[in-house]
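Narrative of activities, Objective 1.

The group set out to show that a structural description can be obtained from nothing but a protein's sequence at a throughput compatible with the screening campaign. Below is one input-output pair from the validation batch, recorded exactly as produced.
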Amino acid sequence: MRLARVGLAVVGVLLVLAVVGLLVGAFAVPSAGVADQGDWGEVSENRTEVVTTVWVNNPNPLVSVLGSDLDLEYDLALNGVDLAAGEREGLSVERGNQTREFTTELRNDRIRAWWVEYVRTNETVDADVRATIGTRAAFRRASYTVERNATFLENESPMIDAMTEAVNGTEGSYPSAAPVYEVRDARAEWGAVNRTRTLVHVRFTVYNPSSVPVPAAPEGISATVRANDVELLRTEGQAYELSGVGRDEVIPPGESREYTVTLRIDNERIDDWFRSHVRQDERTDLEVDFQATVRNPLTGDAVGLPPGGVTYTCEMQTGIFVDDAESGTTCGSGGGVGVGVDVGTPDADLGAALASAMTAGVTPASAVTVGPTPAPAATVGTAPRVGDGDASAGRPSAGESRPWPAVGLRNG
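Output recorded for this entry:
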C-alpha cells in the first residue's frame, strides 16, 4: 500500500513536469527584429515623426493573443544630441509572422542644439539609432537590441563651401585703368556658434597696385543664404562686424591688407530648414548671393565687387532615413556660379552713364554692351548663371581686370 502511494506520487510529479514542459514548449518566446530602423513620417511645424518597423514571429500554437508580450524602446541621436526617444509596452501579437510600426516624435526643440554640433564638426553628420525589442510568453522573455551608426557628409562642408564659392567671385582686379582695386583672396569660414546665432567669417586679402590710395574695407556688404528657400542669412549695408582694418582706412599704393567681415545667421530659422530638408527626402538646394561695395576715390561712385554680384547654387544630400540615398554634395565642386551687371534702364541711361564715365577718366566695362547683342560675360539688367559644374565661371582669369562701374550704374 505504501509502495503504491509512493508510486502514484512519482507518477503525479512526472505528469506535472510533463504538462509544464508542454506548456513551456507551447509558449515559446516570440522572436523579433527590426525590419526598418526608421522612415520619416508626418512633418509639421510642431511635429516630426520617425516611423520604425519591427518584425515578430510568434510560433505559439495554443494562444493567439499572449497579452503584454511586446515592448519597444527607440532612440535617435545626431552628432551626440538626443533628438528622438520613445517606448511602447504591452502590445499583443498574433500567431505567426507579422510586422508592426511604431512612431516616435522628433524633439523639434533640440534641432538647434544639433545644429551647434553640426557646425562645430564642420558639417559632418553622425547618426546613431538604437532599438530594443522585448518579447514575453508565459514565463519566458527575450530581448533583442539593434544598433546602427552612420556618418554623412564626412570631409564635406556644403554650406560653408557654397558661401566660399560665392565670395570667391569677388576675386579679380577693378578696373583696367587707374585706380585699381585688386581682391587677391576671398573665402568663408565658420565662426563661433551657439543656440541663438552662428557667425560666418569672410576673409579678404586686397592689394592696391595703383598710384593713389584706395579704400581698405568695403563700404557695404550684400549677402543672402537660402536653403530650400528658407532664408538663413541676410546682410545689407554695414550690418556686419569688421576686423583687421578700420572702416575709413585706406591702402597706400603698392601695399596690401587683410581683413575679416563677420556675418550672422539667426538660428531661429534652422528648425524651418531642417523640416524642409526632411520633406525633400533629405535634400537641400542652396543659393548664396554675395556682393561687396567700395567707393571709387576719383569719382565717389559706389562700386560693386563684382558689378551685379555673384549667385552660387548647389545641393546637398543625406541618407539618415532615406533608403538608397547617396549622401554627398555638389557644393564647392559641381555647383553653378553666375555673375551679372545691373545697369538700370538700358540705352539712354546706360549711354549717359558711359559718357559720364569717360569724362571722369574711368574706363567702362568692356563686358557691357549697348544695343541688342549682349556680351557673353554679362547682360544688361540680368545676372545669368554660367557654367553648371564650373565654379570658376564668370570670374576674371589671372591678370584680368574688372572695371569700376560707370557713373550712374546701380549696383544691386
